[in-house]
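so i finally got all the pieces together for this one. its two components total, 348 residues if u count the protein bits. some of the lines might not be protein, just check the labels. i wanna see the whole assembly predicted at once instead of chain by chain like last time, that was a mess tbh
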Amino acid sequence: MKTWLVMIAIGLITYATRLSFILLLGRMEISSPLKRALQFVPPAVLSAIIFPELLMPQGKLDISGSNLRLLAGMLAFVVAWRTKSALLTIAAGMAGLLLLQALI
Amino acid sequence: MASSRSEFLSGLKAQLPILIGVIPFGMIYGVVAVGAGLGGQAAQAMSAIVFAGSAQFVAAQLFGAGVPGLVIVLTGGVINLRHALYSASLAPYLQQLSPKWKWLLAYLLTDEAYAVTITHFLKGENLGEGTVGDAPDNPERHAAFSKHWYFLGAGLALWGTWQASTAVGITLGAVIPQSWSIDFTVALTFIALLVPALRERASLATALTAGLVAVVAAGLPYRLGLLMAALVGIVVGVWMEGRA
């Protein structure tokens, strides 16, 4: 029950955001400070999720060579940077992690 | 002269190359959602109700971590705030449409549909075709009048693909063993989305700050560290840009 209520709430917020200016243009303008702030939402949210996933996979900080997710994640960063391909990034990171797990 | 039908089909076609990347994302979402303990039904319904990849990934993850509902709603809402930008950007082209069309197209307004639609609209503007929905009785403007069909074609192509690939992922998720570490694909997916967004110093500073704050604040209850990190990152980005 809780799951469904939460999903519907996120859905409503998302839909309202998408509809906002399409419906209200003329009566409401997007202010430029807000516009500037919004463009930083994706990089902020994404790396706030990525960093803890890579740096603290067991729930506490681990920057040693035995942190396989950190190593595989760094490989994925390099591949993403060089290729700009989402598919290659995911494939390289996953292959890297599985290979390291098999070797170590 | 572009008819509704040909506009619809060219919108659909423009979306095809993007779908190649969307299919694995949808499948991974399905796998991860099931792995996080969301039932197949709920996982599929979220793809229709929320219909936004990154927010769905995060919500599934937070559900799995047992985070309170209000925090999941807030986090998902913040992630999807960027859609206000798309809405503002497309609004001038959609002004003449009926409310029904506006409500329908808003539902289909995703990152991917926005990307191809705004490109198409801007091209039309350069050719002097006017805005969408402009005076239907003027034959010279007719091409522009059917342009919202392009948006509809692109949006529906993405919608159908997202639902179908979610379904495949849910089926796969039930058979993939834990030892494959398939949950790691969430971080990898986000790396793939993040890196191309780091175009200048301000966004790089945003990403680094948000990432470091998230690590430092990881101990906060209810995973509030994520929200806090995102907000601090955004503030730093705006400040850096203002200095440049």
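Chain B touches chain A through 88 residues (CB under 8 Å).
The radius of gyration of chain B is 20 Å.
anyway lmk what u think
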